[in-house]
Specification:
The complex is a heterodimer of chains A (173) and B (89). Chain A is an all-alpha fold and 173 residues long. Chain A is built from six helices and no strands. The longest helix of chain A is centred in the middle third of the chain and has 26 residues. Chain B has a single domain, classed as Helix Hairpins, CATH 1.10.287.3510. Chain B is mostly helical. Classes of the chains: A mainly alpha (173), B mainly alpha (89).
Chain lengths: 173, 89
Protein backbone atom coordinates (compact mmCIF):
# COMPACT_ATOMS: atom_id res chain seq x y z
CA UNK A 1 0.00 0.00 0.00
CA UNK A 2 1.01 3.54 -0.60
CA UNK A 3 2.69 5.00 2.49
CA UNK A 4 0.69 8.22 2.22
CA UNK A 5 -2.59 6.33 2.21
CA UNK A 6 -1.29 4.25 5.11
CA UNK A 7 -0.51 7.36 7.05
CA UNK A 8 -3.91 8.87 6.31
CA UNK A 9 -5.71 5.74 7.43
CA UNK A 10 -3.64 5.56 10.60
CA UNK A 11 -4.26 9.23 11.37
CA UNK A 12 -8.00 8.85 10.87
CA UNK A 13 -8.19 5.75 13.05
CA UNK A 14 -5.98 7.27 15.72
CA UNK A 15 -7.83 10.54 16.01
CA UNK A 16 -11.19 8.80 15.86
CA UNK A 17 -10.29 6.37 18.62
CA UNK A 18 -8.74 9.08 20.79
CA UNK A 19 -11.73 11.39 20.44
CA UNK A 20 -14.23 8.62 20.97
CA UNK A 21 -12.46 7.31 24.04
CA UNK A 22 -12.36 10.79 25.56
CA UNK A 23 -16.08 11.05 24.84
CA UNK A 24 -16.64 7.61 26.33
CA UNK A 25 -15.15 8.60 29.67
CA UNK A 26 -16.65 12.08 29.74
CA UNK A 27 -20.19 11.68 28.46
CA UNK A 28 -23.03 12.33 30.86
CA UNK A 29 -25.25 9.39 30.13
CA UNK A 30 -24.02 5.85 30.59
CA UNK A 31 -25.70 4.54 27.48
CA UNK A 32 -23.87 7.09 25.35
CA UNK A 33 -20.63 6.10 27.03
CA UNK A 34 -21.31 2.48 26.08
CA UNK A 35 -21.99 3.49 22.48
CA UNK A 36 -18.74 5.44 22.31
CA UNK A 37 -16.99 2.42 23.79
CA UNK A 38 -18.44 0.30 20.99
CA UNK A 39 -17.09 2.74 18.41
CA UNK A 40 -13.67 2.72 20.05
CA UNK A 41 -13.63 -1.06 19.94
CA UNK A 42 -14.52 -1.00 16.25
CA UNK A 43 -11.68 1.46 15.68
CA UNK A 44 -9.42 -1.01 17.46
CA UNK A 45 -10.54 -3.70 15.07
CA UNK A 46 -9.61 -1.27 12.33
CA UNK A 47 -6.13 -1.02 13.84
CA UNK A 48 -5.81 -4.79 13.81
CA UNK A 49 -6.87 -4.91 10.17
CA UNK A 50 -4.38 -2.17 9.47
CA UNK A 51 -1.66 -4.32 11.04
CA UNK A 52 -2.77 -7.31 8.94
CA UNK A 53 -4.07 -9.24 11.95
CA UNK A 54 -7.30 -10.25 10.29
CA UNK A 55 -8.12 -13.00 12.74
CA UNK A 56 -7.62 -10.65 15.66
CA UNK A 57 -9.92 -8.09 14.07
CA UNK A 58 -12.61 -10.72 13.63
CA UNK A 59 -12.25 -11.82 17.25
CA UNK A 60 -12.34 -8.23 18.41
CA UNK A 61 -15.55 -7.49 16.53
CA UNK A 62 -17.32 -10.66 17.54
CA UNK A 63 -16.30 -10.74 21.20
CA UNK A 64 -16.37 -7.06 22.04
CA UNK A 65 -18.95 -5.60 19.71
CA UNK A 66 -21.08 -8.72 19.78
CA UNK A 67 -20.75 -9.74 23.39
CA UNK A 68 -19.31 -7.25 25.79
CA UNK A 69 -21.13 -4.15 24.60
CA UNK A 70 -24.46 -5.95 24.52
CA UNK A 71 -23.77 -7.05 28.08
CA UNK A 72 -22.99 -3.47 29.03
CA UNK A 73 -26.21 -2.21 27.48
CA UNK A 74 -28.22 -4.86 29.30
CA UNK A 75 -26.59 -4.00 32.60
CA UNK A 76 -27.14 -0.29 32.06
CA UNK A 77 -30.81 -0.85 31.34
CA UNK A 78 -31.18 -3.14 34.31
CA UNK A 79 -29.51 -0.80 36.75
CA UNK A 80 -30.58 2.66 35.70
CA UNK A 81 -33.61 4.47 36.99
CA UNK A 82 -35.60 6.71 34.71
CA UNK A 83 -33.91 9.99 33.87
CA UNK A 84 -30.83 9.03 35.80
CA UNK A 85 -27.70 11.11 35.31
CA UNK A 86 -24.24 10.29 36.48
CA UNK A 87 -23.40 12.01 39.71
CA UNK A 88 -20.35 14.18 39.82
CA UNK A 89 -17.35 14.05 42.02
CA UNK A 90 -15.98 17.29 43.34
CA UNK A 91 -13.63 19.22 41.11
CA UNK A 92 -10.53 18.20 43.02
CA UNK A 93 -10.96 14.61 41.86
CA UNK A 94 -11.15 15.71 38.24
CA UNK A 95 -8.00 17.78 38.61
CA UNK A 96 -6.18 14.86 40.19
CA UNK A 97 -7.33 12.48 37.46
CA UNK A 98 -6.29 14.89 34.73
CA UNK A 99 -2.91 15.35 36.39
CA UNK A 100 -2.38 11.60 36.65
CA UNK A 101 -3.36 11.08 33.01
CA UNK A 102 -1.17 13.92 31.75
CA UNK A 103 1.76 12.69 33.83
CA UNK A 104 1.36 9.20 32.41
CA UNK A 105 1.19 10.56 28.88
CA UNK A 106 4.30 12.64 29.50
CA UNK A 107 6.26 9.68 30.85
CA UNK A 108 5.30 7.35 28.00
CA UNK A 109 5.90 10.04 25.39
CA UNK A 110 9.31 10.70 26.88
CA UNK A 111 10.14 6.99 26.84
CA UNK A 112 9.01 6.60 23.23
CA UNK A 113 10.91 9.73 22.26
CA UNK A 114 14.14 8.60 23.86
CA UNK A 115 14.05 4.98 22.83
CA UNK A 116 15.15 4.05 19.37
CA UNK A 117 13.01 1.20 18.14
CA UNK A 118 14.55 -1.37 15.87
CA UNK A 119 12.21 -2.41 13.17
CA UNK A 120 12.30 -6.17 13.22
CA UNK A 121 11.38 -7.09 9.69
CA UNK A 122 12.74 -5.87 6.42
CA UNK A 123 10.67 -3.20 4.83
CA UNK A 124 10.11 -4.99 1.56
CA UNK A 125 8.05 -7.82 2.97
CA UNK A 126 5.58 -5.54 4.66
CA UNK A 127 2.02 -5.67 3.51
CA UNK A 128 1.66 -9.34 2.72
CA UNK A 129 2.48 -10.97 6.03
CA UNK A 130 -0.97 -11.90 7.10
CA UNK A 131 -0.79 -14.88 9.41
CA UNK A 132 -2.35 -17.92 7.89
CA UNK A 133 -5.42 -19.37 9.58
CA UNK A 134 -3.87 -22.82 9.52
CA UNK A 135 -0.83 -21.53 11.39
CA UNK A 136 -3.02 -19.91 14.03
CA UNK A 137 -5.00 -23.08 14.53
CA UNK A 138 -1.88 -25.22 14.78
CA UNK A 139 -0.28 -22.86 17.28
CA UNK A 140 -3.44 -22.68 19.35
CA UNK A 141 -3.78 -26.42 19.55
CA UNK A 142 -0.19 -27.63 19.78
CA UNK A 143 1.77 -28.57 22.86
CA UNK A 144 5.30 -27.81 21.73
CA UNK A 145 7.32 -24.70 22.28
CA UNK A 146 5.51 -21.53 21.16
CA UNK A 147 2.25 -23.38 21.02
CA UNK A 148 -0.67 -22.66 23.20
CA UNK A 149 -2.84 -25.61 24.13
CA UNK A 150 -2.31 -25.13 27.86
CA UNK A 151 -3.40 -21.48 28.10
CA UNK A 152 -6.25 -22.30 25.77
CA UNK A 153 -7.57 -24.97 28.11
CA UNK A 154 -7.01 -22.82 31.18
CA UNK A 155 -8.93 -20.08 29.44
CA UNK A 156 -11.81 -22.43 28.78
CA UNK A 157 -11.93 -23.28 32.49
CA UNK A 158 -11.79 -19.58 33.31
CA UNK A 159 -14.70 -18.87 31.00
CA UNK A 160 -16.70 -21.68 32.55
CA UNK A 161 -15.95 -20.30 35.99
CA UNK A 162 -17.01 -16.85 34.82
CA UNK A 163 -20.31 -18.20 33.51
CA UNK A 164 -21.03 -20.11 36.71
CA UNK A 165 -19.94 -17.21 38.89
CA UNK A 166 -22.01 -14.73 36.92
CA UNK A 167 -25.12 -16.84 37.22
CA UNK A 168 -24.49 -17.49 40.91
CA UNK A 169 -23.95 -13.84 41.73
CA UNK A 170 -26.73 -12.39 39.64
CA UNK A 171 -29.52 -14.88 40.29
CA UNK A 172 -32.48 -14.00 42.41
CA UNK A 173 -32.44 -15.27 45.96
CA UNK B 1 7.27 8.16 16.42
CA UNK B 2 4.66 6.00 14.87
CA UNK B 3 2.41 4.96 17.72
CA UNK B 4 2.40 7.79 20.20
CA UNK B 5 -1.31 7.99 19.50
CA UNK B 6 -1.82 4.57 20.98
CA UNK B 7 0.23 5.49 24.01
CA UNK B 8 -1.87 8.55 24.59
CA UNK B 9 -4.93 6.43 24.62
CA UNK B 10 -3.53 4.12 27.29
CA UNK B 11 -3.11 6.72 29.96
CA UNK B 12 -6.33 8.63 30.02
CA UNK B 13 -9.26 7.45 32.05
CA UNK B 14 -10.43 7.57 35.68
CA UNK B 15 -14.07 8.51 36.19
CA UNK B 16 -17.33 7.13 37.39
CA UNK B 17 -18.02 4.70 34.61
CA UNK B 18 -15.07 2.73 35.90
CA UNK B 19 -15.79 -0.44 34.06
CA UNK B 20 -15.98 1.31 30.71
CA UNK B 21 -12.68 3.00 31.45
CA UNK B 22 -11.22 -0.34 32.41
CA UNK B 23 -12.40 -1.76 29.13
CA UNK B 24 -10.69 1.10 27.30
CA UNK B 25 -7.45 0.58 29.18
CA UNK B 26 -7.36 -3.15 28.49
CA UNK B 27 -8.10 -2.44 24.88
CA UNK B 28 -5.19 -0.03 24.65
CA UNK B 29 -2.90 -2.61 26.23
CA UNK B 30 -4.01 -5.16 23.67
CA UNK B 31 -3.33 -2.76 20.83
CA UNK B 32 0.11 -2.28 22.28
CA UNK B 33 0.79 -6.00 22.32
CA UNK B 34 -0.30 -6.35 18.72
CA UNK B 35 1.67 -3.33 17.57
CA UNK B 36 4.87 -4.34 19.30
CA UNK B 37 4.49 -7.82 17.89
CA UNK B 38 4.01 -6.48 14.41
CA UNK B 39 6.68 -3.82 14.32
CA UNK B 40 9.46 -5.26 16.43
CA UNK B 41 9.08 -9.01 15.87
CA UNK B 42 7.05 -9.50 12.70
CA UNK B 43 8.13 -13.10 12.25
CA UNK B 44 6.58 -14.32 15.48
CA UNK B 45 3.10 -14.26 16.87
CA UNK B 46 3.42 -14.26 20.65
CA UNK B 47 1.95 -10.79 20.97
CA UNK B 48 -0.97 -11.78 18.84
CA UNK B 49 -1.75 -14.75 21.04
CA UNK B 50 -1.34 -12.65 24.14
CA UNK B 51 -3.88 -10.26 22.68
CA UNK B 52 -6.21 -13.12 21.85
CA UNK B 53 -6.11 -14.48 25.39
CA UNK B 54 -6.39 -10.98 26.75
CA UNK B 55 -9.61 -10.42 24.82
CA UNK B 56 -11.10 -13.63 26.20
CA UNK B 57 -10.09 -12.83 29.77
CA UNK B 58 -11.51 -9.33 29.43
CA UNK B 59 -14.81 -10.79 28.30
CA UNK B 60 -14.94 -13.10 31.33
CA UNK B 61 -14.01 -10.30 33.70
CA UNK B 62 -16.67 -8.01 32.25
CA UNK B 63 -19.33 -10.68 32.65
CA UNK B 64 -18.49 -11.25 36.31
CA UNK B 65 -18.18 -7.54 37.06
CA UNK B 66 -21.54 -6.80 35.49
CA UNK B 67 -23.12 -9.63 37.45
CA UNK B 68 -21.74 -8.12 40.65
CA UNK B 69 -23.00 -4.69 39.64
CA UNK B 70 -26.48 -6.01 38.94
CA UNK B 71 -26.53 -7.76 42.28
CA UNK B 72 -25.35 -4.65 44.08
CA UNK B 73 -28.07 -2.70 42.36
CA UNK B 74 -30.61 -5.19 43.54
CA UNK B 75 -29.38 -4.93 47.12
CA UNK B 76 -28.67 -1.23 47.37
CA UNK B 77 -30.79 0.41 44.71
CA UNK B 78 -28.17 2.36 42.82
CA UNK B 79 -24.63 1.85 41.67
CA UNK B 80 -22.72 4.90 42.78
CA UNK B 81 -19.40 4.11 44.36
CA UNK B 82 -19.90 5.99 47.60
CA UNK B 83 -22.96 3.96 48.47
CA UNK B 84 -21.14 0.70 47.98
CA UNK B 85 -18.78 1.17 50.90
CA UNK B 86 -21.38 -0.04 53.35
CA UNK B 87 -21.83 -3.27 51.52
CA UNK B 88 -20.40 -5.70 54.07
CA UNK B 89 -22.43 -6.16 57.20
Amino acid sequence: MDPIINLIIFACLGTASLLLSVLAVSSKSLLRAATYLLLVLICTAGFYLFLNYHFLAAVQISVYAGGVVVLFVFAIFLTSNKGDRLQKHQTKKYVMGALAALGGIAVTAFAVWKHQFVYGGNATMEGDQEINMKVIGAALMGTEKYQYLMPFEILSILLLAAIVGGILIARKR
Amino acid sequence: MFFIGIYGFITRKNMIAILISLELVLNAVEINFAVFNRYLFPGQMEGMFFTLFGIAITAAETAVALAIIINAYRVIGNIEIKNLSKMKN
